[in-house]
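User: quick one
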Amino acid sequence: MTETIINVILFTMLVTTAFAIVRMTRLFAVVMLSGVFSLLTAMLFVTLDAVDVAFTEAAVGAGISTVLMLGTIALTSRSTKPSTRSNALPLLLVTLTGAVLVYGTLDMPTFGDPNAPAQTHLAPHYLNESITEIDVPNVVTSILASYRGFDTLGETAVVFAAGIGVLLILSGLRRRREEEEEDES
Amino acid sequence: MTLEFFLGHVNYWLFIVLMMTGFYIVVSRGNYVKKIVGLNIFQVAVFMLYISIGKVTGGTAPIFPTNSQGKIKIDPEIVYSNPLPHVLILTAIVVGIATTSLGLALIIRIREEYDTIEEDDILEIEAAMAQAENDEHGSAMGGRA
Amino acid sequence: MEHHLILRVVTKLLVGTIILFAFYVQFHGDFSPGGGFQAGVIMAVAFILYGLVFGLDAVQQVFPPWIVHKLVALGVLVYAGTGIWNMVLGYEFLHYGSLNPHHMSHGQHTGIIWVEAGVGITVTGVMIAIFYAFAGRAPRLGDDDW
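Assistant: Done. Structure below.
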């Protein structure tokens, strides 16, 4: 019961933060609120037993992404222009999509159901056999690095590719521009 | 609709509210930084949906207790939540920040090209450029195009 | 940031602790929450904090960009190299048991440590490289515009 109350309180704060982000026009406030949003998310992940995920979200969402977004604002502009378009069409679209998604959840198993399909196929193998097969107390680590090693290799490659992409977009040009300025001077 | 059904599904609906808030920001706001923040909210809502699918009532974090020598103690009494969604989402978060930073880098480049990060202004500039190009070709063809 | 005395002193105290914590998260990830992804991010945060407070030049003297760019690729190579090494030993790609065939779970431990190290190196490198790329451009807003 306590867990449900904590969940509801965290959710209320999350939704409030999200609505505040919709309304803000100062980008600094938007970015700060998105950091707050990430920290609240991390807390919610702890109540949902996903401590590893909460750890990552706290470090990534509240730390690095806030720094990068502040860096972007410093390089671009501080505030948004008030939107001139009507909000009716987006609201309609969002309500429709939301209604369809809610309809989709009606078939889903009850929250926390131990007999849900997601709980009965792979998870028991991981939880029962990883003690003898891998012998690592943190099951998340043993799945991440060993059972799904290919998956993680792919994810690492994606991070690598994204890093290279940022370097190509930002640094490559600066070098060219510096050379041009040297030519001009 | 019984109360039991409502309590068992209200979590999913709250995720959908968050997800749609992010979606609304993406479609209704013209500022690119704000669009990225909206995408992040959308993404986090999907993460929450995944993690909540893995939650087992009365369960705990999937880390086995160890004794003082670091050997795993097997206790069949303890219920663990499903670790598989945790793994998927953990990697997805880090990939998410990497792709977000790629988007932010593109925004910086857009700012340098167009001197604005508002979608409306950029569409105007593009339209003006297309118009100018059209006029140029048109006059070359004798004003008939 | 010349005038922020408290920030400068606190940063000097924190940077070492953050790096130590990153190593703890990296190598204690088998027993508690943590692992390569989180450790990489935390390690990068230590350098980003230093760079934010003391300036980009100071942090690039400690950690030059060319080393960072090498690290980005090195991590993926360590990860894939572990898999290739398993193949050399006559097992499947990423079958860590091959590292200690008499005691498969010990081989798994060794393999997981190498793989997590690869992940940590790449994530550290990518995050710091992205920060360098963003911070290397002249900001349009001054200190007081916020």
